[in-house]
Each structure stands twice: as C-alpha cells, then as structure tokens.
Amino acid sequence: EQELLNKFNIGWAYYGRGNGVSFVYDRELSELFSVGLGSEFYFIDEEREFSYFVVGDLHLKELLELKKGYDIYPGFEVGSFESDFGAHFYVGVSKSITPNIGLYTEIGTRGILGLYYNF
After folding, report:
1. Distance, CA of 83 to CA of 89 (rounded, Å)
2. Model pTM score
C-alpha cells in the first residue's frame, strides 16, 4: 500500500493576472485525488493582489500508465481572487527529480511554473 503524501508547491505565476508567487499545500486522498489550500501574491504595476483558494486535482499517472516520476492532472481552484469569488480550471504536468522534489507547471486561466516538495 502506497503512503499518502503531503506536498508543498511554490511557483512563479508567469501569466494571467500579472507576475506573482503561488503557494499551495496539497494532501493526497488516494492515488487519484488530492485537495489543498493555496494563496497567491501578484505584483501588477504599482498594485499588489492577494488571492486564497481551495484546490482539487485528479492525478492520471496510474490511469495513463505514465513513466515513473511523471504526472498529468486536471484541477480546479475555488476562492477569492482579487476580492472576487471565482473558480478556475487548469491542467498540470509534474516530473519528480528526487523522491521528494520535483518540477511542475499548471496552465489554464493563468500559468504557474515551480517546484514541489513531498513529505
């Protein structure tokens, strides 16, 4: 039986609402599903924007029989974005570098590129 993982992501938000930094804590519920909490800080011209949200991901690595270390996951986030309640959908791709560290990108209404740490 595989141990369920906690994951911490930190990334650069490179398009969407402007330049920003994304932080997400994620917990596997099973090999297929994970949920988490996130926040993002954006730097838009002279303004600053703060968002917080709940995330959910469907991990397809086992279903698609991907090479070890790779994952593709459609996901959603629901929360407060620029003081407005909203929902966004995205597709993510991740690749482990070591058993605990890896790279990921998420593309949808905005783009994120970053590192994750499993614990």
Report:
1. 18
2. 0.90
**Per-residue pLDDT band at 2 (split at 50, 70, 90):** low
Find where tokens 């407060």 sit.
Answer: 80
Token duo for residue 73? 């996951």
List CB contacts of 46: < 8 A, sequence separation 6 or more: none
**What is the number of other CB atoms lying within 10 angstroms of the CB of residue 94?**
21
- DSSP assignment of the chain: -PPP-EEEEEEEEEESSSEEEEEEEEEESSSSEEEEEEEEEEEETTEEEEEEEEEEEE--TTTTTPPTTEEEEEEEEEEEETTEEEEEEEEEEEEESSSSEEEEEEEESSEEEEEEEE-
User: What are 11-55's pLDDT values in tens digits?
Assistant: 999 887 778 999 999 999 999 999 999 999 988 778 888 999 999
